Amino acid sequence: MMFRVVLVQVITSLVVAVAAGAIAGRHAALTSLLGGLACSLPNGMFALNLALLGQMRQPQGSGKGSSVAPANALPILIGELCKLVLTIGLLALIVWGYKDVIWLALIVAVGAVLLVQPLALAWRQD
Predict the structure, then answer these.
(1) Is residue 110 part of a domain?
(2) Alpha carbons 120 and 125: distance in angstroms, whole number
(3) Long-range contacts from 25-29, C-beta under 8 angstroms, 24+ separation
(4) How many distinct structural domains can be found in the chain?
(5) pLDDT digits over 69-110, tens only?
């Protein structure tokens, strides 16, 4: 499920980059692509972290009064913090390292990728 969300985010990044390129040129396309990937790649790493945590989870101790939930919450919170720091770091690296940043393209790409996440999570394939 989470990997499907990441795939939708990457596809959204590509679509927004193509649209930005058609409207404003290659610098806008590259800025848009980098901005979208700066948000979707950390989400992919977080999804991988969740998948690995799911494999390591043990079924024992799932009764009432168990400490399994708090023990599993800490790695998830740490993963979420790492995802946030990595996203901010990648966006800062784009702004610092790519001199021809088109701000509108960057903002639209980041917004589109972040807005598509709840839509992809809500979309269920039965």
Answers:
(1) yes
(2) 10
(3) 27/100, 27/101, 27/102, 28/102, 28/104, 28/105, 29/105
(4) 1
(5) 566 778 888 989 999 999 999 999 999 999 999 999 999 999
